[in-house]
Amino acid sequence: MKIDDSSILVTGGAGYIGSHAVLALKDAGYRVVVIDNLTTGFAWAVPEDVALVQGDIADQNLVEQTLREHHVRAIMHFAGSVVVPESVSDPLKYYGNNSAKTRDLIESAVRVGVPHFIFSSTAATYGVPDRSPIDEATPQLPINPYGMSKLMTEHMLRDVSIAHPLNFCALRYFNVAGADPLGRSGQSTAGATHLIKVAVEAALGKRDHVGIFGTDFDTPDGTGVRDYIHVSDLAAAHVLALEALIAQPRSNLVLNCGYGRGFSVLEVLDAVDRVTNIKVERRLEKRRAGDPASLISDNSAILAALPWRPAYDELSQIVADALAWERKLSDGHPSK
Ligand code: UFG
Question: What is the Cα–Cα distance from 270 to 280, expressed in whole angstroms?
Fold first, then answer.
């Protein structure tokens, strides 16, 4: 459904997942405005025909002016801090950037009367779940401040949706990876810690090895198992969630975003070797603090609620797109 002269506000639209959402919205015919403070995002990641407002989501004057000027019909909220270990060493940064600032953003939405809000939540809100696959009714018991800061926002949105004319969708992401298949965006932050990004960097000689963090988990091969989802499938889910919120303004949605299947660290590294035709050096290392053995989504809710059908759910495609983007960065993309 395309909407007259209204826009969708994408916070964090210059970042990894947000920039893919901007592309998906544009491809679907929506007008988009981005607000990003560019602390971890890149201005070049925002397409030229999309307005980029450089600023903070908690700057209510700026946000409310933007909401009014651009006739914002819905907010997709990606801006925030995302590094789990950092959240342990600096929890107040996470409660500030992810919880407190989001509270201010939601208040701006309510004041201006924006009716729809789509929120980047995370599987980290489940902590170490007592079941696999994980459905949305699984108790949310985060084990780090990152997960807790996101869970607090889910609670805020639920309460606000009861008190005010705003409905919301919380999308709980599993392990997001890959890059736009057309090469328009990808994961560009330096010092990445995510497995697929780290592995393709190693394949291109940007690192000399990949550490395998634990080989004694209770999994088939002893390494950690995750449900890797292609960032463009995730971006598509956001557009469909937006359309569902518009179609059913009295309903909220809380949906896992994953493919419902897991790959171990060794399976991921094998895929990287196959796709790159390079044997990346592997070193067995100790477990990383707080890593659960396995996180696999039950994705039946999203499949039932939205007409979402994954288009890029082959691990080899996720790796190939991540690799193509990594090559682009090496070849002097604007981020360099
Ligand atoms: N791993 C390695 N070596 C590495 C990097 C990762 O062995 O160099 C392993 C990890 O131990 C884990 C798996 O690969 O078993 C995936 O690790 P990532 O760091 O790629 O991702 P995480 O599962 O730790 O966390 C990600 C996001 C979180 C989110 C979580 C939800 O970073 O924000 O998924 O599932 F909350």
Answer: 9
